[in-house]
Protein backbone atom coordinates (compact mmCIF):
# COMPACT_ATOMS: atom_id res chain seq x y z
CA UNK A 1 0.00 0.00 0.00
CA UNK A 2 1.32 3.44 -0.82
CA UNK A 3 1.97 5.62 2.16
CA UNK A 4 0.77 8.92 0.74
CA UNK A 5 -2.14 10.78 -0.75
CA UNK A 6 -5.38 9.58 0.72
CA UNK A 7 -8.41 11.75 -0.14
CA UNK A 8 -10.24 10.54 2.96
CA UNK A 9 -8.47 9.79 6.21
CA UNK A 10 -10.31 8.42 9.22
CA UNK A 11 -8.67 9.01 12.58
CA UNK A 12 -10.05 6.96 15.46
CA UNK A 13 -8.53 5.55 18.61
CA UNK A 14 -9.23 2.04 17.36
CA UNK A 15 -8.74 0.30 14.07
CA UNK A 16 -11.80 -1.67 12.95
CA UNK A 17 -9.86 -4.83 13.75
CA UNK A 18 -8.05 -5.83 16.93
CA UNK A 19 -4.82 -7.74 17.11
CA UNK A 20 -5.48 -10.94 19.08
CA UNK A 21 -3.65 -14.11 19.92
CA UNK A 22 -5.34 -17.14 18.37
CA UNK A 23 -5.80 -20.52 20.08
CA UNK A 24 -2.59 -21.85 18.49
CA UNK A 25 -0.61 -18.86 19.79
CA UNK A 26 -0.24 -17.09 16.42
CA UNK A 27 -1.46 -13.51 15.97
CA UNK A 28 -4.75 -12.87 14.18
CA UNK A 29 -7.37 -10.13 13.74
CA UNK A 30 -10.86 -9.74 15.17
CA UNK A 31 -13.53 -7.05 14.67
CA UNK A 32 -13.24 -4.38 17.39
CA UNK A 33 -16.04 -3.92 19.91
CA UNK A 34 -18.42 -0.98 20.12
CA UNK A 35 -20.60 1.18 17.97
CA UNK A 36 -17.95 3.34 16.37
CA UNK A 37 -16.48 0.63 14.20
CA UNK A 38 -19.87 -0.68 13.09
CA UNK A 39 -20.79 2.81 11.96
CA UNK A 40 -17.72 3.93 10.06
CA UNK A 41 -16.77 0.75 8.25
CA UNK A 42 -19.30 1.19 5.41
CA UNK A 43 -18.25 4.84 4.84
CA UNK A 44 -14.63 3.81 4.62
CA UNK A 45 -15.32 1.18 2.01
CA UNK A 46 -17.42 3.54 -0.09
CA UNK A 47 -14.64 6.16 -0.16
CA UNK A 48 -11.53 4.04 -0.44
CA UNK A 49 -10.33 5.76 2.71
CA UNK A 50 -7.32 5.21 4.92
CA UNK A 51 -7.96 4.48 8.60
CA UNK A 52 -5.47 5.43 11.29
CA UNK A 53 -5.98 3.70 14.64
CA UNK A 54 -4.68 1.55 17.46
CA UNK A 55 -4.88 -2.23 16.97
CA UNK A 56 -5.08 -2.90 20.74
CA UNK A 57 -2.25 -4.23 22.89
CA UNK A 58 1.29 -2.99 22.99
CA UNK A 59 2.83 -4.80 20.04
CA UNK A 60 5.89 -3.61 18.25
CA UNK A 61 5.48 -1.39 15.18
CA UNK A 62 3.10 -2.90 12.57
CA UNK A 63 3.18 -2.04 8.87
CA UNK A 64 0.11 -0.57 7.16
CA UNK A 65 -2.03 -3.33 5.64
CA UNK A 66 -5.32 -4.00 3.89
CA UNK A 67 -8.17 -5.91 5.51
CA UNK A 68 -11.52 -6.57 3.78
CA UNK A 69 -10.55 -3.96 1.21
CA UNK A 70 -9.82 -1.27 3.81
CA UNK A 71 -6.46 0.49 4.11
CA UNK A 72 -5.46 0.34 7.74
CA UNK A 73 -2.57 2.15 9.41
CA UNK A 74 -1.82 0.73 12.87
CA UNK A 75 -0.57 3.12 15.54
CA UNK A 76 1.27 1.42 18.36
CA UNK A 77 0.97 2.50 21.96
CA UNK A 78 3.44 1.85 24.72
CA UNK A 79 2.26 0.31 27.98
CA UNK A 80 2.55 3.76 29.57
CA UNK A 81 0.35 5.24 26.83
CA UNK A 82 -2.26 2.50 27.19
CA UNK A 83 -2.38 3.30 30.89
CA UNK A 84 -2.25 7.08 30.55
CA UNK A 85 -4.11 7.86 27.34
CA UNK A 86 -6.51 4.93 26.94
CA UNK A 87 -7.32 3.49 30.36
CA UNK A 88 -6.52 6.74 32.15
CA UNK A 89 -7.63 9.99 30.54
CA UNK A 90 -10.02 8.51 27.94
CA UNK A 91 -11.73 5.93 30.11
CA UNK A 92 -11.01 7.01 33.69
CA UNK A 93 -11.61 10.75 33.16
CA UNK A 94 -13.59 11.58 30.02
CA UNK A 95 -15.86 8.53 29.77
CA UNK A 96 -17.49 8.93 33.21
CA UNK A 97 -17.50 12.74 32.98
CA UNK A 98 -19.28 12.70 29.60
CA UNK A 99 -21.77 10.09 30.86
CA UNK A 100 -23.34 12.19 33.60
CA UNK A 101 -20.84 11.13 36.29
CA UNK A 102 -22.38 7.65 36.46
CA UNK A 103 -18.97 6.79 37.97
CA UNK A 104 -16.57 9.28 39.53
CA UNK A 105 -14.04 10.67 37.05
CA UNK A 106 -10.42 10.90 38.15
CA UNK A 107 -8.18 13.81 37.20
CA UNK A 108 -4.46 13.06 36.90
CA UNK A 109 -1.93 15.33 35.26
CA UNK A 110 0.18 12.46 33.92
CA UNK A 111 -2.90 11.00 32.20
CA UNK A 112 -3.48 14.34 30.51
CA UNK A 113 0.15 14.52 29.32
CA UNK A 114 -0.18 11.09 27.80
CA UNK A 115 -3.47 12.07 26.10
CA UNK A 116 -1.77 15.10 24.55
CA UNK A 117 1.20 13.14 23.22
CA UNK A 118 -0.90 10.32 21.76
CA UNK A 119 -3.21 12.86 20.08
CA UNK A 120 -0.15 14.58 18.64
CA UNK A 121 1.21 11.36 17.19
CA UNK A 122 -2.13 10.55 15.53
CA UNK A 123 -2.36 14.10 14.13
CA UNK A 124 1.16 13.85 12.69
CA UNK A 125 0.34 10.55 11.03
CA UNK A 126 -2.83 12.02 9.48
CA UNK A 127 -0.85 15.03 8.26
CA UNK A 128 1.62 12.69 6.62
CA UNK A 129 -0.97 10.53 4.85
CA UNK A 130 -3.57 13.06 3.70
CA UNK A 131 -3.43 14.25 0.09
CA UNK A 132 -3.45 17.99 -0.71
CA UNK A 133 -6.89 19.32 0.18
CA UNK A 134 -8.08 15.97 1.53
CA UNK A 135 -10.85 15.41 4.05
CA UNK A 136 -9.91 14.07 7.47
CA UNK A 137 -12.66 12.76 9.69
CA UNK A 138 -11.63 12.47 13.35
CA UNK A 139 -13.69 10.33 15.72
CA UNK A 140 -14.63 10.30 19.35
CA UNK A 141 -13.54 11.41 22.79
CA UNK A 142 -10.09 9.80 22.70
CA UNK A 143 -9.03 12.17 19.87
CA UNK A 144 -10.41 15.60 20.76
CA UNK A 145 -7.10 17.45 20.36
CA UNK A 146 -6.39 16.05 16.90
CA UNK A 147 -8.41 18.63 14.90
CA UNK A 148 -6.43 21.62 16.17
CA UNK A 149 -3.06 19.85 16.02
CA UNK A 150 -3.80 18.73 12.48
CA UNK A 151 -4.94 22.17 11.32
CA UNK A 152 -1.67 23.67 12.53
CA UNK A 153 0.28 21.12 10.49
CA UNK A 154 -1.99 21.13 7.44
CA UNK A 155 -4.19 24.21 6.98
CA UNK A 156 -5.18 22.94 3.52
CA UNK A 157 -7.30 20.10 4.92
CA UNK A 158 -11.02 19.92 5.47
CA UNK A 159 -11.46 18.55 8.98
CA UNK A 160 -14.55 17.00 10.52
CA UNK A 161 -14.94 15.72 14.05
CA UNK A 162 -17.68 13.44 15.34
CA UNK A 163 -18.32 12.63 19.00
CA UNK A 164 -19.98 9.22 19.41
CA UNK A 165 -20.76 9.68 23.11
CA UNK A 166 -22.83 12.38 24.86
CA UNK A 167 -21.37 15.86 25.24
CA UNK A 168 -22.09 16.92 28.81
CA UNK A 169 -23.74 20.08 30.10
CA UNK A 170 -21.41 22.96 31.03
CA UNK A 171 -22.00 22.31 34.75
CA UNK A 172 -20.21 18.95 34.46
CA UNK A 173 -17.70 19.75 31.72
CA UNK A 174 -16.24 22.65 33.65
CA UNK A 175 -14.87 20.30 36.30
CA UNK A 176 -12.13 19.41 33.82
CA UNK A 177 -8.83 21.11 34.62
CA UNK A 178 -8.10 21.04 30.85
CA UNK A 179 -11.54 22.20 29.66
CA UNK A 180 -10.22 25.07 27.57
CA UNK A 181 -7.61 22.95 25.78
CA UNK A 182 -10.24 20.36 24.84
CA UNK A 183 -12.63 22.99 23.47
CA UNK A 184 -9.82 24.57 21.46
CA UNK A 185 -8.79 21.14 20.21
CA UNK A 186 -12.28 20.55 18.81
CA UNK A 187 -12.41 24.04 17.28
CA UNK A 188 -9.66 22.94 14.88
CA UNK A 189 -12.43 21.17 12.94
CA UNK A 190 -14.69 22.84 10.38
CA UNK A 191 -17.65 20.79 11.55
CA UNK A 192 -18.13 19.24 14.98
CA UNK A 193 -20.85 16.59 15.01
CA UNK A 194 -22.81 15.28 17.98
CA UNK A 195 -25.46 12.60 18.45
CA UNK A 196 -28.16 15.00 19.67
CA UNK A 197 -28.90 18.73 19.35
CA UNK A 198 -28.39 19.07 23.13
CA UNK A 199 -24.72 18.07 22.80
CA UNK A 200 -24.13 20.66 20.08
CA UNK A 201 -25.83 23.33 22.21
CA UNK A 202 -23.73 22.42 25.26
CA UNK A 203 -20.59 22.75 23.15
CA UNK A 204 -21.46 26.13 21.65
CA UNK A 205 -22.42 27.49 25.05
CA UNK A 206 -19.13 26.33 26.56
CA UNK A 207 -17.12 27.82 23.71
CA UNK A 208 -18.82 31.17 24.29
CA UNK A 209 -18.38 31.05 28.07
CA UNK A 210 -14.95 29.48 28.40
CA UNK A 211 -13.07 30.45 25.24
CA UNK A 212 -14.85 33.74 24.66
CA UNK A 213 -15.57 33.33 20.93
CA UNK A 214 -18.57 34.94 19.33
CA UNK A 215 -21.32 32.42 18.51
CA UNK A 216 -24.65 32.55 16.75
CA UNK A 217 -26.95 29.51 16.91
CA UNK A 218 -24.82 26.57 15.68
CA UNK A 219 -21.90 28.69 14.43
CA UNK A 220 -18.70 29.73 16.19
CA UNK A 221 -16.79 32.71 14.77
CA UNK A 222 -13.03 32.48 15.29
CA UNK A 223 -10.79 35.56 15.41
CA UNK A 224 -8.94 34.43 12.24
CA UNK A 225 -12.18 34.60 10.22
CA UNK A 226 -12.83 30.88 10.15
CA UNK A 227 -16.23 29.53 11.26
CA UNK A 228 -16.89 26.23 12.99
CA UNK A 229 -20.29 24.61 12.85
CA UNK A 230 -21.67 22.39 15.63
CA UNK A 231 -24.64 20.19 14.73
CA UNK A 232 -26.39 16.93 15.51
CA UNK A 233 -26.07 13.85 13.31
CA UNK A 234 -27.77 10.92 15.08
CA UNK A 235 -25.81 7.85 14.11
CA UNK A 236 -27.35 4.65 12.80
CA UNK A 237 -26.62 1.16 11.51
CA UNK A 238 -26.54 -0.76 8.25
CA UNK A 239 -30.22 -1.58 8.63
CA UNK A 240 -30.60 -3.49 5.35
CA UNK A 241 -27.49 -5.54 6.14
CA UNK A 242 -28.83 -6.53 9.55
CA UNK A 243 -32.25 -7.32 8.16
CA UNK A 244 -30.92 -9.59 5.44
CA UNK A 245 -28.67 -11.35 7.93
CA UNK A 246 -31.65 -11.89 10.22
CA UNK A 247 -33.71 -13.26 7.32
CA UNK A 248 -31.01 -15.74 6.26
CA UNK A 249 -31.52 -19.47 6.68
CA UNK A 250 -28.52 -20.11 8.97
CA UNK A 251 -29.57 -17.29 11.31
CA UNK A 252 -33.17 -18.55 11.39
CA UNK A 253 -31.92 -22.04 12.25
CA UNK A 254 -29.59 -20.70 14.92
CA UNK A 255 -32.41 -18.63 16.47
CA UNK A 256 -34.51 -21.81 16.73
CA UNK A 257 -31.59 -23.64 18.27
CA UNK A 258 -31.14 -20.89 20.88
CA UNK A 259 -34.81 -21.04 21.90
CA UNK A 260 -34.68 -24.81 22.16
CA UNK A 261 -31.51 -24.66 24.25
CA UNK A 262 -33.29 -22.22 26.57
CA UNK A 263 -36.08 -24.79 27.03
CA UNK A 264 -38.60 -23.09 24.71
CA UNK A 265 -39.89 -20.58 27.25
CA UNK A 266 -42.95 -18.51 26.36
CA UNK A 267 -40.87 -15.34 26.16
CA UNK A 268 -37.17 -14.59 25.89
CA UNK A 269 -35.84 -11.29 27.28
CA UNK A 270 -32.48 -10.12 25.92
CA UNK A 271 -29.79 -7.64 26.89
CA UNK A 272 -26.60 -7.15 24.85
CA UNK A 273 -24.06 -4.61 26.10
CA UNK A 274 -20.40 -4.00 26.53
CA UNK A 275 -19.83 -4.73 30.21
CA UNK A 276 -19.92 -1.03 31.15
CA UNK A 277 -21.32 0.75 34.21
CA UNK A 278 -23.18 3.21 32.00
CA UNK A 279 -25.36 0.44 30.58
CA UNK A 280 -27.53 -0.18 33.64
CA UNK A 281 -27.13 -3.97 33.54
CA UNK A 282 -27.31 -4.43 37.31
CA UNK A 283 -30.57 -2.54 37.80
CA UNK A 284 -32.21 -4.22 34.83
CA UNK A 285 -31.39 -7.73 36.09
CA UNK A 286 -32.64 -6.80 39.52
CA UNK A 287 -35.91 -5.52 38.07
CA UNK A 288 -36.38 -8.78 36.16
CA UNK A 289 -35.54 -10.93 39.17
CA UNK A 290 -38.00 -9.04 41.36
CA UNK A 291 -40.75 -9.79 38.84
CA UNK A 292 -40.00 -13.47 39.33
CA UNK A 293 -39.72 -13.20 43.11
CA UNK A 294 -43.03 -11.28 43.22
CA UNK A 295 -44.70 -14.05 41.20
CA UNK A 296 -45.46 -11.87 38.14
CA UNK A 297 -43.16 -13.99 35.99
CA UNK A 298 -42.24 -17.66 36.25
CA UNK A 299 -38.91 -19.19 35.21
CA UNK A 300 -40.87 -21.78 33.22
CA UNK A 301 -42.29 -18.96 31.07
CA UNK A 302 -39.55 -16.39 30.88
CA UNK A 303 -35.78 -16.29 30.75
CA UNK A 304 -33.40 -13.33 30.55
CA UNK A 305 -30.40 -13.77 28.26
CA UNK A 306 -27.73 -11.21 29.13
CA UNK A 307 -24.68 -10.95 26.89
CA UNK A 308 -21.93 -8.84 28.47
CA UNK A 309 -19.08 -8.16 26.07
CA UNK A 310 -15.76 -7.91 27.95
CA UNK A 311 -14.53 -4.32 27.91
CA UNK A 312 -11.70 -2.19 29.39
CA UNK A 313 -10.84 -4.95 31.80
CA UNK A 314 -7.80 -3.22 33.26
CA UNK A 315 -9.83 -0.21 34.42
CA UNK A 316 -10.76 -0.45 38.11
CA UNK A 317 -14.44 0.52 37.74
CA UNK A 318 -14.96 -2.18 35.11
CA UNK A 319 -13.43 -4.86 37.35
CA UNK A 320 -15.70 -3.84 40.19
CA UNK A 321 -18.72 -3.98 37.89
CA UNK A 322 -17.82 -7.43 36.64
CA UNK A 323 -17.64 -8.77 40.18
CA UNK A 324 -20.95 -7.14 41.05
CA UNK A 325 -22.74 -8.64 38.06
CA UNK A 326 -21.16 -12.08 38.64
CA UNK A 327 -22.42 -12.02 42.22
CA UNK A 328 -25.88 -10.74 41.32
CA UNK A 329 -26.43 -13.36 38.60
CA UNK A 330 -25.22 -16.10 40.93
CA UNK A 331 -27.57 -14.98 43.66
CA UNK A 332 -30.58 -14.58 41.37
CA UNK A 333 -30.09 -18.00 39.80
CA UNK A 334 -29.38 -19.60 43.16
CA UNK A 335 -32.52 -18.13 44.71
CA UNK A 336 -34.96 -18.30 41.81
CA UNK A 337 -33.74 -20.86 39.28
CA UNK A 338 -34.82 -24.47 38.98
CA UNK A 339 -32.92 -27.41 37.50
CA UNK A 340 -32.37 -26.63 33.82
CA UNK A 341 -34.18 -23.30 34.29
CA UNK A 342 -31.90 -20.49 35.38
CA UNK A 343 -33.68 -17.12 35.57
CA UNK A 344 -30.75 -15.48 33.83
CA UNK A 345 -28.62 -16.99 31.12
CA UNK A 346 -25.44 -14.95 31.45
CA UNK A 347 -22.71 -14.86 28.81
CA UNK A 348 -19.50 -12.93 29.36
CA UNK A 349 -18.14 -13.04 25.84
CA UNK A 350 -18.18 -11.34 22.46
CA UNK A 351 -19.87 -12.90 19.45
CA UNK A 352 -19.82 -12.46 15.68
CA UNK A 353 -22.61 -10.42 14.10
CA UNK A 354 -24.47 -13.51 12.85
CA UNK A 355 -24.83 -14.78 16.40
CA UNK A 356 -26.11 -11.36 17.49
CA UNK A 357 -28.66 -11.44 14.68
CA UNK A 358 -29.78 -14.90 15.80
CA UNK A 359 -30.17 -13.64 19.37
CA UNK A 360 -32.18 -10.64 18.16
CA UNK A 361 -34.38 -13.02 16.19
CA UNK A 362 -34.84 -15.29 19.17
CA UNK A 363 -35.76 -12.50 21.61
CA UNK A 364 -39.31 -11.34 22.34
CA UNK A 365 -38.37 -8.44 24.61
CA UNK A 366 -35.15 -6.49 24.04
CA UNK A 367 -34.05 -4.58 27.13
CA UNK A 368 -31.75 -1.54 26.68
CA UNK A 369 -31.53 0.48 29.89
CA UNK A 370 -28.40 2.67 30.03
CA UNK A 371 -28.13 5.50 32.55
CA UNK A 372 -26.63 7.56 29.73
CA UNK A 373 -25.72 6.54 26.19
CA UNK A 374 -24.71 8.57 23.12
CA UNK A 375 -27.03 6.60 20.85
CA UNK A 376 -27.06 2.82 21.53
CA UNK A 377 -26.89 0.91 18.29
CA UNK A 378 -28.03 -2.37 19.87
CA UNK A 379 -31.56 -0.92 20.11
CA UNK A 380 -31.48 -0.08 16.40
CA UNK A 381 -29.99 -3.46 15.46
CA UNK A 382 -32.81 -5.25 17.25
CA UNK A 383 -35.41 -3.21 15.38
CA UNK A 384 -33.67 -3.81 12.04
CA UNK A 385 -33.70 -7.58 12.65
CA UNK A 386 -37.45 -7.77 13.48
CA UNK A 387 -38.60 -7.99 9.87
CA UNK A 388 -41.92 -9.57 10.85
CA UNK A 389 -42.81 -6.50 12.95
CA UNK A 390 -42.87 -8.59 16.13
CA UNK A 391 -40.93 -8.09 19.36
CA UNK A 392 -40.93 -5.39 22.03
CA UNK A 393 -38.20 -2.89 22.84
CA UNK A 394 -37.79 -1.57 26.40
CA UNK A 395 -35.57 1.48 26.09
CA UNK A 396 -34.02 3.99 28.48
CA UNK A 397 -35.05 7.61 28.05
CA UNK A 398 -31.38 8.46 28.52
CA UNK A 399 -30.14 6.65 25.41
CA UNK A 400 -29.81 8.90 22.35
CA UNK A 401 -31.89 6.31 20.48
CA UNK A 402 -34.94 7.26 22.58
CA UNK A 403 -35.21 10.51 20.61
CA UNK A 404 -36.02 8.52 17.49
CA UNK A 405 -37.53 5.27 18.81
CA UNK A 406 -40.49 6.92 20.49
CA UNK A 407 -42.65 3.79 20.20
CA UNK A 408 -40.45 1.74 22.51
CA UNK A 409 -41.53 1.12 26.09
CA UNK A 410 -39.53 4.03 27.48
CA UNK A 411 -38.14 3.81 31.00
CA UNK A 412 -36.17 5.78 33.54
CA UNK A 413 -33.41 3.29 34.48
CA UNK A 414 -33.07 4.81 37.96
CA UNK A 415 -36.70 3.90 38.70
CA UNK A 416 -36.72 0.16 39.45
CA UNK A 417 -40.49 -0.03 39.90
CA UNK A 418 -41.01 1.86 36.67
CA UNK A 419 -38.70 -0.60 34.92
CA UNK A 420 -40.57 -3.54 36.42
CA UNK A 421 -43.87 -2.33 35.07
CA UNK A 422 -42.41 -1.56 31.64
CA UNK A 423 -40.89 -5.07 31.46
CA UNK A 424 -44.20 -6.57 32.44
CA UNK A 425 -46.18 -4.42 30.00
CA UNK A 426 -43.82 -5.39 27.19
CA UNK A 427 -44.12 -9.06 28.20
CA UNK A 428 -47.90 -8.95 28.27
CA UNK A 429 -48.51 -6.68 25.28
CA UNK A 430 -50.73 -8.21 22.63
CA UNK A 431 -49.66 -8.76 19.03
CA UNK A 432 -51.49 -5.75 17.68
CA UNK A 433 -49.80 -3.42 20.11
CA UNK A 434 -46.26 -4.73 19.56
CA UNK A 435 -46.75 -4.74 15.81
CA UNK A 436 -47.97 -1.16 15.75
CA UNK A 437 -44.94 -0.02 17.72
CA UNK A 438 -42.36 -2.13 15.91
CA UNK A 439 -43.67 -1.11 12.50
CA UNK A 440 -43.21 2.57 13.30
CA UNK A 441 -39.72 2.02 14.71
CA UNK A 442 -38.70 -0.06 11.71
CA UNK A 443 -39.70 2.76 9.42
CA UNK A 444 -37.46 5.15 11.35
CA UNK A 445 -34.46 2.82 11.39
CA UNK A 446 -34.64 1.75 7.75
CA UNK A 447 -35.10 5.32 6.51
CA UNK A 448 -32.22 6.70 8.56
CA UNK A 449 -29.43 4.21 8.13
CA UNK A 450 -25.70 4.66 8.57
CA UNK A 451 -25.22 5.61 4.93
CA UNK A 452 -27.66 8.51 5.38
CA UNK A 453 -25.80 9.53 8.53
CA UNK A 454 -22.40 9.62 6.83
CA UNK A 455 -23.91 11.29 3.79
CA UNK A 456 -25.36 14.14 5.80
CA UNK A 457 -22.17 14.65 7.80
CA UNK A 458 -20.04 14.75 4.65
CA UNK A 459 -22.43 17.10 2.90
CA UNK A 460 -22.45 19.51 5.80
CA UNK A 461 -18.69 19.30 6.03
CA UNK A 462 -18.23 20.26 2.40
CA UNK A 463 -20.71 23.13 2.77
CA UNK A 464 -18.86 24.94 5.57
CA UNK A 465 -17.91 28.40 4.29
CA UNK A 466 -14.22 29.20 4.23
CA UNK A 467 -13.25 25.57 4.55
CA UNK A 468 -10.44 24.41 2.35
CA UNK A 469 -10.10 21.04 0.76
CA UNK A 470 -12.02 19.00 -1.74
CA UNK A 471 -15.35 17.45 -0.83
CA UNK A 472 -15.47 13.70 -0.46
CA UNK A 473 -18.61 12.02 -1.68
CA UNK A 474 -20.14 9.65 0.85
C1 LIG B 1 -17.84 3.16 22.46
C2 LIG B 1 -16.96 4.35 22.08
C3 LIG B 1 -15.90 3.93 21.07
C4 LIG B 1 -15.14 2.74 21.59
C5 LIG B 1 -16.09 1.60 21.92
C6 LIG B 1 -15.38 0.37 22.49
O1 LIG B 1 -18.62 2.78 21.38
O2 LIG B 1 -17.74 5.41 21.58
O3 LIG B 1 -15.01 5.00 20.82
O4 LIG B 1 -14.19 2.32 20.65
O5 LIG B 1 -17.02 2.06 22.87
O6 LIG B 1 -14.60 0.71 23.59
P1 LIG B 1 -13.02 0.45 23.58
O7 LIG B 1 -12.54 1.11 24.82
O8 LIG B 1 -12.88 -1.03 23.61
O9 LIG B 1 -12.45 1.06 22.33
Automatic annotation (TrEMBL):
Q: Which UniProt keywords apply?
A: Glycosyltransferase, Transferase
Record's Pfam families? Glyco_transf_20
Q: Which CDD domains match?
A: GT20_TPS (cd03788)
InterPro entries assigned to the protein according to its UniProt record, in alphabetical order? Glyco_trans_20
- List its EC numbers: 2.4.1.15
Could you give a GO molecular-function term held by this entry?
A: alpha,alpha-trehalose-phosphate synthase (UDP-forming) activity
Highest taxon above the source species? Bacteria
Q: Which family does it belong to?
A: Belongs to the glycosyltransferase 20 family.
The entry's protein name is Trehalose-6-phosphate synthase
Amino acid sequence: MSNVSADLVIVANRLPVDRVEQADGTPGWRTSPGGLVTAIEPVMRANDGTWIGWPGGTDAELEPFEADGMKLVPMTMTQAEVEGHYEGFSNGTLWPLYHDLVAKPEFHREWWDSYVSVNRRFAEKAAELAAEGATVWVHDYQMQLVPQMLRELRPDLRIGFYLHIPFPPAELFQQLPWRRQLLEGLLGADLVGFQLPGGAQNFVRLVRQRVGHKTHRDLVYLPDGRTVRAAAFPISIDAAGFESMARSEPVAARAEEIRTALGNPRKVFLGIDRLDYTKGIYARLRAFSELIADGHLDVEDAVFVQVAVPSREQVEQYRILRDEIDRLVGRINGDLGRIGRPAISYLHSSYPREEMAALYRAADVMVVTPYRDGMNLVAKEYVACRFEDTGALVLSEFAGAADELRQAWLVNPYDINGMKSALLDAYRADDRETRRRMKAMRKTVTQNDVAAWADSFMQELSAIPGSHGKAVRP
